[in-house]
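seq as requested:
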Amino acid sequence: MRKLYLISGTPAPDAPQEQVRKRLRKLRVRNDPQCARCAGREWVTATIGNVKSKLCVNCLTKGERVVMD
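struct tokens:
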């Protein structure tokens, strides 16, 4: 009987979706806030008195007021 030997092969190539995800991760700035509800990274600064809040643009267009951290 022959024995099977395990050889170290090359990893499978990334799917097109994974290539896009890797490219976007490189472009993303780590300090930017992210919306907890829709995961959007676009915001509008709303100032009421002396308080500034960053509101998610995607949620704001849907009529929701979501404050981003």
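The chain is about 25% helix and 20% strand.
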